[in-house]
Amino acid sequence: MWLHSALLFLSMVLYASRIASGLGSSCSAPLGGGTASPSDPYWLETIQHHGTSAFNSNTSSYQVFRNVKDFGANGDGVTDDTAAINAAMSSGNRCGGGSCGSSTTYLVSSAINTYYYTQIIGDAKNPPTLLASPNFIGFAVIDSDPYIPDDNGAQWFTNQNNFFRSLRNLIIDLRQVPSSNAAIGLHWQVAQATSLVNVVVEMSTAAGTNHQGLFMENGSGGFMGDIVFNGGKIGIQVGNQQFTVRNLTINDANTAILGIWNWGFTFQGVTINNCQIGFDLTTGGTTEYTQSVGSEAIIDSVVTNTPIFVLSSTASYGRLAGSLVLNNIGLINVPTAVGVVGGATVLAGGTITIASWGQGNVYSGTGGQKTFVQGNIVSVNKPSVLLDNSGRIFGKAHPQYANYATGQFVSVKSQGAQGDGRTDDTVAIRNVINKYAGCKIIFFDAGTYYVTDTITIPAGTQIVGEAWSVVLAGGRNFEDHNNPRVVVQAGEPNSQGVLEISDIVFSTVGPAPGAILLEWNVHDPSGQQGAAGLWDTHLRLGGAVGTNMQSVQCPSGSVNTACQAAFLGIHLTPGSSAYFEGTWVWTADHDLDSSSSPQTSIFTGRGVLSESAGPVWLIGTSSEHATLYQYNLVNAQNHYIGFAQTETPYYQPMPSAPAPYSSVSTYHDPVFSGSADMAWGMYVQSSSNVILFGAGFYSFLQNYDEACLITNACQAQIFNMDTASSVAVYSLSTVGATYQLSVGQKGVVNQDDNLDGFQETLTAWSM
Predict the structure, then answer these.
(1) Does residue 164 sit in helix, strand or coil?
(2) Which of 42, 465, 699, 720 could form a disulfide with 123 if both were Cys (CB 3.0 to 4.6 A apart)?
(3) Do 228 and 170 touch, CB atoms closer than 8 A?
């Protein structure tokens, strides 16, 4: 079954001024602020929807945009709307069940089960409420991966592959459910290319309440941000390989965050008010079979009127048993900062600021000697350009243009683009941009837009997709690896202005060994941090219908030149700045659109290359399965990166890196020889003021064989920097690499010292 997209709409900031380097031919002035009146509907409800699923067998009849009221939902808070919402979700033979409106209140009595490749979007101006009825029955109000009844724990989706989900602008209200019932707002067991944004969960504050805001027991995520949980026994209960959480608020819960296991989580900007425990962490497991919370990195957070900030289930006894990093934490009336269940206080609290504190193994320089620490650790100097006015790492919410009127948008399909995955839309897209850039928000209706040459997006442009609209590059212009060509150019070199891209997927039709999918040139204007960025925008290379790089063409173990997907994923040029949130750069290791998702051998030269002098924020990004490296920082400055996740290609060392490509000095490629024959997770050259706050660099296989994991010898080295670079490293977890960190391609931190579950965890390193 093809995994077709859908955007489910539950009908449901004033935008800053810009500097535009060039306006479209139809523009008399820049777009400016939104013109919608408070009573106007949200633009996404009223814009004409031309979206299609390009490779659906019934393209003309398959409905992408779905307003739940068109499926019979009333939204009066009295009528049970469960069946209508689930019908909107499932109609059209979608992937789910194990086979793969106006702002108001929708009463639901059982779970809303989400389907693959779905965005559920409420009215950003007036978010609607899903009100759980007093007799609510089900695992959670919204369930991203339902359990199949009477099937021994089987679920609809493989949790590590539960990609492409987005939930925005919703209030979930559990307060009509008796407080003694174990009601859950969200079951959010997801993987990459997923996001929760602008979601509020309301729960009972009664004594003994069993309500829970979010439950996540597995997965390989992921990003969530700008979310609030009020009341309940537990705000969020989380277990996942890795995740990034930004701007999380929890009020009046017994336990704000319950961590059951992970390889690494980064929490940025957490606010906890009037809870009993802030972070309750299950710790102590140091093997695969006793896995618990491996790494918790918390930055720029405030905790108020909460007796215990961090509570570990097991004492460390002077050795690594779960890594913890606290950076810039404000405590107000919090007696215990760090404690152990039934044990002594590890770090006293009060009304204090914790500048930089850690628990775990700490390193400095190239000596490779660990020091177990429960105390202050190196406090990196944070460049001011990375900080907001309050001194925190800057963050920016997903643009939703809530105050903009429908007339301030232009649809590319209304201007002649087809989006059918076959017609060459290059000229049509260029024409729309040339005509409307800077004075209208350009809306890519759902579809797959085939392009055969470079699309240039000038500074001053805002682009928004619909259910991850796809820009699919192919043809002779992208086939020459000796003369790489850019698919999408974001700004002219050294240009300045606003440039926002959200809800888009960039991809290629194979072979495309000369394609550079995204060249990022634009720099945000002075005083407008994060004005140039990507939100919920991804690169998907192969493994999907329409790419000509599926399991039939590119079976695992093959080396087919027709399966060369790209020269480079993303290139941040020296004059650029960038705010990327939740971006996934993925060369497919398996076929999403074939039964049983068989493995593939698809080849992308490089993942993300940054030469930017900054500021650059990479928030919850990942880059997987590129041949030479996943991240390469060259002469880069002023970067905040947290959490970064990588995987080495499963086929290596057959062939060894850099094959089937070669190292190109013009692009500052690493040189491979001897034992350095596998892709680097991160490679840093002549770079300064780089903060890595949470990372997971993984190498699971050698030529599709997991035997190397037994001795963590799938590759010798995975993260390297030269002696000219200054990088502060916190909460680094690795899998399968003998050396977790290297300097000058000489191993420094051996994984043997940092066994911390399935993964190995380094708490802090500095030169």
Answers:
(1) coil
(2) 42
(3) no
Do residues 592 and 635 make contact, with C-beta atoms less than 8 angstroms apart? Answer: no
* Cis upstream peptide for 511 (omega within 30°): yes
* Residues 6 or more apart in contact with residue 373 via CB below 8 angstroms: 358, 359, 360, 361, 362, 763, 764
Beta strand 371-376 with 345-364 is antiparallel
* Residue 593: CB atoms within 10 Å: 20
Of 574, 565, 572, nearest in space to 546 by CA: 565
Q: How far is CA 711 from the centre of its chain?
A: 30
DSSP state, residue 71: G
Residue 331 neighbours by CB under 8 Å, 6+ apart: 302, 303, 309, 337, 349, 350, 351, 352, 353, 354
Is 682 in contact with 646 (CB distance < 8 Å)? yes
Model confidence over 546-587: pLDDT tens digits? 999 999 999 999 999 999 999 999 999 999 999 999 999 999
pLDDT tens column, 710-747? 999 999 999 999 999 999 999 999 999 999 999 999 99
- Residue 449 pLDDT: 98
CA distances from 663 to 108, 482, 671 (A): 57, 11, 6
What phi-psi label fits residue 712: left (phi over 0), alpha (psi between -120 and 50 degrees) or beta?
left
Q: Which helix (H) or strand (E) holds 427?
A: helix 426-436
- Angstrom distance (rounded) from CA 441 to CA 503: 13
DSSP helix/strand/coil, 510: coil
pTM above 0.85, yes or no: yes
The CA-based dihedral angle spanning residues 281, 282, 283, 286, taken in that order and rounded to the nearest 10 degrees? -140
Among candidates 87, 104, 86, which has minimal Cα distance to 11?
A: 104
Q: Pick the closest to residue 446 from 41, 121, 699, 700 (CA basis).
A: 121
- Look at the chain and count its residues: 767
Written as six digits, the tokens of 379 are: 């406090």
CA 37 – CA 34 distance, rounded (Å): 9
Buried b (16+ CB within 10 A) or exposed e, 360-387: bbbbeeeeeebeeeeeebbebebbebbb
